[in-house]
Write a structure and sequence with these properties.
single chain; 332 residues; mainly beta; Neuraminidase; four-stranded antiparallel beta sheet; 1 helix; 5% helix; globular; binds 2-acetamido-2-deoxy-beta-D-glucopyranose; 6-blade_b-propeller_TolB-like; Hetero-Diels-Alderase-like; signal
Protein backbone atom coordinates (compact mmCIF):
# COMPACT_ATOMS: atom_id res chain seq x y z
CA UNK A 1 0.00 0.00 0.00
CA UNK A 2 1.34 3.43 -0.92
CA UNK A 3 1.15 6.24 1.58
CA UNK A 4 -1.60 7.91 -0.46
CA UNK A 5 -3.66 4.72 -0.49
CA UNK A 6 -3.12 4.23 3.24
CA UNK A 7 -4.29 7.76 3.89
CA UNK A 8 -7.28 7.18 1.65
CA UNK A 9 -8.03 3.90 3.44
CA UNK A 10 -7.73 5.58 6.82
CA UNK A 11 -10.04 8.40 5.71
CA UNK A 12 -12.56 5.84 4.43
CA UNK A 13 -12.54 4.10 7.80
CA UNK A 14 -12.86 7.41 9.57
CA UNK A 15 -15.74 8.40 7.32
CA UNK A 16 -17.43 5.04 7.91
CA UNK A 17 -17.04 5.54 11.67
CA UNK A 18 -18.51 9.04 11.47
CA UNK A 19 -21.31 7.82 9.23
CA UNK A 20 -22.38 5.28 11.80
CA UNK A 21 -23.06 8.25 14.06
CA UNK A 22 -26.02 8.91 11.77
CA UNK A 23 -29.32 7.38 12.83
CA UNK A 24 -29.49 5.06 9.84
CA UNK A 25 -27.32 2.65 7.94
CA UNK A 26 -25.57 3.86 4.81
CA UNK A 27 -27.79 1.60 2.74
CA UNK A 28 -31.08 3.03 3.94
CA UNK A 29 -32.55 5.31 1.29
CA UNK A 30 -35.19 6.67 3.66
CA UNK A 31 -35.05 6.47 7.44
CA UNK A 32 -37.41 7.64 10.16
CA UNK A 33 -35.67 10.00 12.57
CA UNK A 34 -38.66 10.89 14.73
CA UNK A 35 -42.41 10.31 14.78
CA UNK A 36 -44.50 12.93 16.58
CA UNK A 37 -47.86 12.12 18.20
CA UNK A 38 -50.78 11.61 15.83
CA UNK A 39 -52.34 14.77 14.36
CA UNK A 40 -49.02 16.66 14.56
CA UNK A 41 -48.74 18.33 11.15
CA UNK A 42 -45.06 19.19 10.68
CA UNK A 43 -44.93 21.94 8.09
CA UNK A 44 -41.42 23.31 7.82
CA UNK A 45 -37.81 22.70 8.84
CA UNK A 46 -34.67 24.67 9.58
CA UNK A 47 -31.35 23.01 10.37
CA UNK A 48 -29.20 24.58 13.09
CA UNK A 49 -25.45 24.90 12.63
CA UNK A 50 -24.98 22.25 15.35
CA UNK A 51 -27.01 19.77 13.27
CA UNK A 52 -30.24 19.83 15.27
CA UNK A 53 -33.42 20.21 13.21
CA UNK A 54 -36.15 22.71 14.11
CA UNK A 55 -39.60 21.44 13.12
CA UNK A 56 -42.65 23.73 12.96
CA UNK A 57 -46.17 22.44 13.46
CA UNK A 58 -49.36 24.08 12.20
CA UNK A 59 -51.76 21.80 14.05
CA UNK A 60 -49.89 21.87 17.40
CA UNK A 61 -48.81 25.54 17.16
CA UNK A 62 -45.30 24.59 18.28
CA UNK A 63 -41.65 24.55 17.33
CA UNK A 64 -39.81 21.35 18.21
CA UNK A 65 -36.15 20.44 18.01
CA UNK A 66 -35.01 16.98 16.96
CA UNK A 67 -31.37 15.93 17.26
CA UNK A 68 -31.02 13.49 14.34
CA UNK A 69 -27.86 11.95 15.80
CA UNK A 70 -29.15 11.15 19.28
CA UNK A 71 -32.88 10.83 18.40
CA UNK A 72 -33.82 13.23 21.17
CA UNK A 73 -36.74 15.62 20.64
CA UNK A 74 -37.76 18.63 22.73
CA UNK A 75 -40.32 21.41 22.59
CA UNK A 76 -38.62 24.74 21.89
CA UNK A 77 -41.82 26.72 22.24
CA UNK A 78 -45.53 26.07 22.59
CA UNK A 79 -47.44 29.00 21.05
CA UNK A 80 -51.04 29.87 21.73
CA UNK A 81 -52.99 27.16 19.87
CA UNK A 82 -54.34 29.81 17.45
CA UNK A 83 -50.79 30.56 16.22
CA UNK A 84 -50.11 27.58 13.92
CA UNK A 85 -46.47 27.70 12.82
CA UNK A 86 -45.53 27.68 9.12
CA UNK A 87 -42.23 28.84 7.57
CA UNK A 88 -38.97 29.16 9.51
CA UNK A 89 -35.57 30.40 8.31
CA UNK A 90 -32.21 31.35 9.82
CA UNK A 91 -31.35 35.08 9.60
CA UNK A 92 -28.10 35.16 11.60
CA UNK A 93 -26.00 32.46 13.27
CA UNK A 94 -28.54 30.37 15.21
CA UNK A 95 -31.21 33.10 15.11
CA UNK A 96 -34.35 32.29 13.15
CA UNK A 97 -37.64 33.90 12.22
CA UNK A 98 -40.91 31.98 11.99
CA UNK A 99 -44.36 32.94 10.74
CA UNK A 100 -47.67 31.88 12.27
CA UNK A 101 -51.36 32.17 11.46
CA UNK A 102 -54.70 30.78 12.58
CA UNK A 103 -55.37 28.06 9.99
CA UNK A 104 -58.53 26.08 9.41
CA UNK A 105 -57.01 22.71 8.54
CA UNK A 106 -60.19 21.57 6.79
CA UNK A 107 -60.01 24.39 4.22
CA UNK A 108 -56.32 25.42 4.46
CA UNK A 109 -57.48 29.02 4.84
CA UNK A 110 -55.94 31.47 7.29
CA UNK A 111 -58.11 33.70 9.47
CA UNK A 112 -57.89 37.21 8.07
CA UNK A 113 -55.50 39.39 10.03
CA UNK A 114 -54.03 36.49 12.10
CA UNK A 115 -50.52 36.38 10.56
CA UNK A 116 -47.52 37.12 12.81
CA UNK A 117 -43.73 37.00 12.59
CA UNK A 118 -41.55 35.86 15.50
CA UNK A 119 -37.86 35.86 16.38
CA UNK A 120 -36.47 32.52 17.58
CA UNK A 121 -33.08 32.99 19.26
CA UNK A 122 -31.53 29.56 19.69
CA UNK A 123 -28.09 30.89 20.73
CA UNK A 124 -28.70 30.58 24.43
CA UNK A 125 -31.46 28.02 24.29
CA UNK A 126 -31.38 24.85 26.33
CA UNK A 127 -34.14 22.84 27.92
CA UNK A 128 -35.65 24.88 30.71
CA UNK A 129 -33.72 28.03 29.72
CA UNK A 130 -35.56 31.33 29.26
CA UNK A 131 -38.01 31.48 26.41
CA UNK A 132 -36.11 32.03 23.14
CA UNK A 133 -39.19 33.36 21.28
CA UNK A 134 -40.33 36.96 20.94
CA UNK A 135 -43.04 38.49 18.78
CA UNK A 136 -41.59 40.81 16.14
CA UNK A 137 -44.94 42.01 14.83
CA UNK A 138 -48.43 41.22 13.67
CA UNK A 139 -48.73 41.13 9.87
CA UNK A 140 -52.36 42.21 9.48
CA UNK A 141 -52.28 42.63 5.68
CA UNK A 142 -50.70 39.22 5.05
CA UNK A 143 -53.16 36.43 4.18
CA UNK A 144 -51.52 33.00 4.59
CA UNK A 145 -47.80 33.43 5.40
CA UNK A 146 -45.90 30.37 4.23
CA UNK A 147 -42.26 30.13 3.02
CA UNK A 148 -39.68 32.53 4.49
CA UNK A 149 -36.20 33.30 3.16
CA UNK A 150 -33.68 36.00 4.16
CA UNK A 151 -32.18 38.37 1.62
CA UNK A 152 -28.57 37.14 1.21
CA UNK A 153 -27.04 40.62 1.59
CA UNK A 154 -29.50 41.94 4.18
CA UNK A 155 -30.43 39.54 6.97
CA UNK A 156 -32.55 42.34 8.45
CA UNK A 157 -35.11 41.61 5.75
CA UNK A 158 -36.91 38.40 4.85
CA UNK A 159 -39.17 37.62 1.92
CA UNK A 160 -42.41 35.92 2.97
CA UNK A 161 -44.65 34.02 0.55
CA UNK A 162 -48.34 34.82 0.95
CA UNK A 163 -50.05 31.67 -0.34
CA UNK A 164 -53.52 33.17 -0.07
CA UNK A 165 -53.03 36.59 -1.68
CA UNK A 166 -50.41 35.29 -4.14
CA UNK A 167 -47.75 37.88 -3.24
CA UNK A 168 -44.21 38.06 -1.90
CA UNK A 169 -43.83 40.39 1.07
CA UNK A 170 -40.62 42.12 2.16
CA UNK A 171 -40.61 42.07 5.98
CA UNK A 172 -38.19 43.72 8.41
CA UNK A 173 -36.94 41.21 11.00
CA UNK A 174 -36.49 43.98 13.57
CA UNK A 175 -39.74 45.96 13.26
CA UNK A 176 -42.00 43.72 11.18
CA UNK A 177 -42.59 46.61 8.75
CA UNK A 178 -43.80 45.03 5.53
CA UNK A 179 -44.43 46.06 1.95
CA UNK A 180 -45.18 44.06 -1.19
CA UNK A 181 -41.82 43.02 -2.71
CA UNK A 182 -43.15 41.25 -5.83
CA UNK A 183 -46.61 40.73 -7.28
CA UNK A 184 -46.97 38.40 -10.27
CA UNK A 185 -49.75 36.21 -11.66
CA UNK A 186 -47.42 33.20 -11.25
CA UNK A 187 -47.86 33.49 -7.45
CA UNK A 188 -51.67 33.22 -7.50
CA UNK A 189 -53.60 30.01 -6.94
CA UNK A 190 -55.43 28.76 -9.97
CA UNK A 191 -58.45 27.03 -8.44
CA UNK A 192 -60.60 27.96 -5.42
CA UNK A 193 -60.60 24.24 -4.56
CA UNK A 194 -56.88 24.46 -3.68
CA UNK A 195 -56.46 27.96 -2.19
CA UNK A 196 -52.66 27.77 -1.89
CA UNK A 197 -50.48 29.62 -4.39
CA UNK A 198 -46.86 30.67 -3.82
CA UNK A 199 -45.48 28.54 -1.05
CA UNK A 200 -41.76 27.64 -0.75
CA UNK A 201 -39.06 30.30 -1.34
CA UNK A 202 -35.27 30.03 -1.75
CA UNK A 203 -32.69 32.42 -3.20
CA UNK A 204 -29.66 31.33 -5.26
CA UNK A 205 -27.42 33.67 -7.30
CA UNK A 206 -29.82 36.65 -7.40
CA UNK A 207 -32.75 34.46 -8.36
CA UNK A 208 -35.77 33.76 -6.20
CA UNK A 209 -36.99 30.19 -6.69
CA UNK A 210 -40.56 29.45 -5.68
CA UNK A 211 -43.28 26.85 -5.82
CA UNK A 212 -46.95 27.49 -6.57
CA UNK A 213 -48.79 24.52 -5.07
CA UNK A 214 -52.15 24.85 -6.82
CA UNK A 215 -50.50 25.57 -10.19
CA UNK A 216 -48.10 22.55 -10.05
CA UNK A 217 -45.36 25.08 -10.79
CA UNK A 218 -41.71 25.51 -9.83
CA UNK A 219 -40.22 28.71 -11.22
CA UNK A 220 -37.66 31.43 -10.58
CA UNK A 221 -37.51 35.17 -10.96
CA UNK A 222 -34.40 37.40 -10.91
CA UNK A 223 -34.31 39.83 -7.98
CA UNK A 224 -32.30 42.83 -6.85
CA UNK A 225 -30.47 43.00 -3.50
CA UNK A 226 -33.63 44.30 -1.80
CA UNK A 227 -35.86 41.53 -3.16
CA UNK A 228 -37.62 43.45 -5.94
CA UNK A 229 -38.03 41.70 -9.30
CA UNK A 230 -35.43 42.58 -11.93
CA UNK A 231 -36.82 40.36 -14.69
CA UNK A 232 -39.67 38.03 -15.49
CA UNK A 233 -40.72 34.64 -14.16
CA UNK A 234 -39.03 31.63 -15.80
CA UNK A 235 -40.68 28.23 -15.43
CA UNK A 236 -38.34 25.53 -14.10
CA UNK A 237 -40.79 22.58 -13.97
CA UNK A 238 -44.51 22.04 -14.38
CA UNK A 239 -44.24 18.27 -13.76
CA UNK A 240 -44.20 18.23 -9.96
CA UNK A 241 -47.65 17.69 -8.42
CA UNK A 242 -48.74 20.08 -5.64
CA UNK A 243 -45.19 21.31 -4.90
CA UNK A 244 -44.81 22.57 -1.33
CA UNK A 245 -41.50 23.65 0.20
CA UNK A 246 -38.16 22.53 -1.25
CA UNK A 247 -34.40 22.35 -0.75
CA UNK A 248 -32.15 23.97 -3.33
CA UNK A 249 -28.65 22.54 -3.87
CA UNK A 250 -25.76 24.83 -4.83
CA UNK A 251 -25.89 23.61 -8.46
CA UNK A 252 -29.56 24.54 -8.77
CA UNK A 253 -30.99 21.03 -8.30
CA UNK A 254 -34.34 21.24 -6.51
CA UNK A 255 -35.70 18.65 -4.09
CA UNK A 256 -39.37 19.51 -3.70
CA UNK A 257 -42.00 18.06 -1.38
CA UNK A 258 -45.42 17.47 -2.92
CA UNK A 259 -48.31 14.99 -2.97
CA UNK A 260 -46.61 12.15 -1.03
CA UNK A 261 -43.58 12.50 -3.31
CA UNK A 262 -40.03 13.84 -3.08
CA UNK A 263 -39.52 15.36 -6.53
CA UNK A 264 -36.10 16.06 -8.00
CA UNK A 265 -35.81 18.79 -10.61
CA UNK A 266 -32.43 19.04 -12.34
CA UNK A 267 -31.12 22.48 -13.40
CA UNK A 268 -32.24 21.72 -16.99
CA UNK A 269 -35.80 21.08 -15.74
CA UNK A 270 -35.70 17.27 -15.96
CA UNK A 271 -38.12 16.12 -13.27
CA UNK A 272 -38.50 12.77 -11.56
CA UNK A 273 -40.19 11.33 -8.48
CA UNK A 274 -37.12 10.44 -6.40
CA UNK A 275 -39.03 8.82 -3.53
CA UNK A 276 -42.71 7.94 -3.16
CA UNK A 277 -45.59 8.93 -5.41
CA UNK A 278 -49.18 10.10 -4.93
CA UNK A 279 -50.30 6.62 -3.84
CA UNK A 280 -47.15 5.68 -1.91
CA UNK A 281 -46.64 5.73 1.86
CA UNK A 282 -42.81 6.07 1.58
CA UNK A 283 -42.89 9.82 2.33
CA UNK A 284 -46.58 10.10 3.22
CA UNK A 285 -47.68 13.70 3.82
CA UNK A 286 -44.31 15.25 2.85
CA UNK A 287 -44.27 19.05 3.34
CA UNK A 288 -40.65 20.29 3.15
CA UNK A 289 -36.98 19.34 2.71
CA UNK A 290 -33.68 20.70 4.03
CA UNK A 291 -30.08 19.48 3.76
CA UNK A 292 -28.08 18.57 6.85
CA UNK A 293 -25.32 21.06 7.74
CA UNK A 294 -22.69 19.06 9.57
CA UNK A 295 -19.74 17.22 8.01
CA UNK A 296 -21.49 13.93 8.78
CA UNK A 297 -24.91 14.68 7.30
CA UNK A 298 -24.25 17.26 4.56
CA UNK A 299 -25.58 14.83 1.94
CA UNK A 300 -28.68 13.95 3.94
CA UNK A 301 -32.00 15.51 3.05
CA UNK A 302 -34.29 15.92 6.05
CA UNK A 303 -37.99 15.79 5.30
CA UNK A 304 -41.03 16.86 7.30
CA UNK A 305 -44.48 15.27 6.98
CA UNK A 306 -48.05 15.66 8.15
CA UNK A 307 -48.25 11.89 8.65
CA UNK A 308 -51.07 11.87 6.07
CA UNK A 309 -53.55 14.40 7.50
CA UNK A 310 -54.06 15.71 3.95
CA UNK A 311 -54.21 13.64 0.73
CA UNK A 312 -53.23 10.38 2.41
CA UNK A 313 -52.55 7.60 -0.12
CA UNK A 314 -55.61 5.40 -0.70
CA UNK A 315 -55.96 2.92 2.17
CA UNK A 316 -52.99 4.33 4.09
CA UNK A 317 -52.92 4.54 7.87
CA UNK A 318 -52.70 8.13 9.09
CA UNK A 319 -50.01 8.49 11.74
CA UNK A 320 -48.13 11.30 13.47
CA UNK A 321 -46.08 13.74 11.42
CA UNK A 322 -42.46 12.71 11.00
CA UNK A 323 -38.92 13.85 10.49
CA UNK A 324 -37.41 11.55 7.84
CA UNK A 325 -33.91 11.39 6.36
CA UNK A 326 -33.24 10.66 2.69
CA UNK A 327 -29.75 9.54 1.68
CA UNK A 328 -29.77 11.35 -1.68
CA UNK A 329 -26.29 10.04 -2.53
CA UNK A 330 -27.82 6.58 -3.12
CA UNK A 331 -29.88 7.89 -6.05
CA UNK A 332 -28.29 8.14 -9.50
C1 LIG B 1 -54.60 9.60 13.56
O1 LIG B 1 -55.51 10.67 13.37
C2 LIG B 1 -56.32 10.50 12.22
C3 LIG B 1 -57.07 11.79 11.98
O2 LIG B 1 -57.75 12.20 13.12
C4 LIG B 1 -57.21 9.28 12.41
O3 LIG B 1 -58.02 9.08 11.28
C5 LIG B 1 -56.32 8.06 12.62
O4 LIG B 1 -57.10 6.93 12.90
C6 LIG B 1 -55.36 8.28 13.76
N1 LIG B 1 -54.37 7.21 13.75
C7 LIG B 1 -54.01 6.57 14.86
C8 LIG B 1 -52.95 5.55 14.69
O5 LIG B 1 -54.51 6.81 15.95
C1 LIG C 1 -58.72 41.56 6.38
O1 LIG C 1 -57.97 42.32 7.32
C2 LIG C 1 -57.46 43.51 6.76
C3 LIG C 1 -56.50 44.14 7.77
O2 LIG C 1 -56.97 44.04 9.07
C4 LIG C 1 -58.64 44.42 6.38
O3 LIG C 1 -58.15 45.62 5.82
C5 LIG C 1 -59.49 43.68 5.35
O4 LIG C 1 -60.64 44.44 5.06
C6 LIG C 1 -59.93 42.32 5.85
N1 LIG C 1 -60.53 41.58 4.77
C7 LIG C 1 -61.58 40.82 4.93
C8 LIG C 1 -62.04 40.08 3.71
O5 LIG C 1 -62.16 40.71 6.00
C1 LIG D 1 -35.04 48.13 -4.49
O1 LIG D 1 -33.92 48.36 -5.31
C2 LIG D 1 -34.22 48.92 -6.58
C3 LIG D 1 -32.94 49.09 -7.37
O2 LIG D 1 -32.15 47.95 -7.31
C4 LIG D 1 -34.90 50.28 -6.40
O3 LIG D 1 -35.31 50.76 -7.66
C5 LIG D 1 -36.13 50.13 -5.50
O4 LIG D 1 -36.66 51.39 -5.22
C6 LIG D 1 -35.76 49.44 -4.19
N1 LIG D 1 -36.99 49.20 -3.43
C7 LIG D 1 -37.06 49.35 -2.11
C8 LIG D 1 -38.39 49.10 -1.49
O5 LIG D 1 -36.12 49.66 -1.42
C1 LIG E 1 -53.85 6.33 -7.11
O1 LIG E 1 -54.86 5.42 -6.76
C2 LIG E 1 -56.14 5.77 -7.28
C3 LIG E 1 -57.18 4.80 -6.70
O2 LIG E 1 -56.64 3.54 -6.50
C4 LIG E 1 -56.07 5.74 -8.80
O3 LIG E 1 -57.31 6.13 -9.34
C5 LIG E 1 -55.01 6.72 -9.27
O4 LIG E 1 -54.84 6.66 -10.66
C6 LIG E 1 -53.67 6.44 -8.60
N1 LIG E 1 -52.74 7.51 -8.91
C7 LIG E 1 -51.50 7.29 -9.35
C8 LIG E 1 -50.69 8.50 -9.65
O5 LIG E 1 -51.05 6.18 -9.46
Amino acid sequence: MTVALKVHFFLSLLFAALSTALPFSNNDAVATIWTFPNETWVENLAVRQNGAVLCTSISRAAIYQVDPFSHVAATVHQFDILDGVLGIAEIENDIFVAVTATIDLATNMAKNGSAKIWRVDMCAWSLGAPNPISLISNLPEVGLPDGVTPLPTDPGVVLVADADKGLIWRVSTTTGAHTIAISDPAFKYTSPLVPIGVNGLKILDDELYFTNLAANLIARIPITANGSASGSVQKVSTETLLPDDFALAGDGTIYAAGYNTLWRVMPDGTTDALVGGPNSTAVQGITSAQFGRTREDGGVLYISTTGGLLLAPAGARVHGGQLLAVNVGLFG
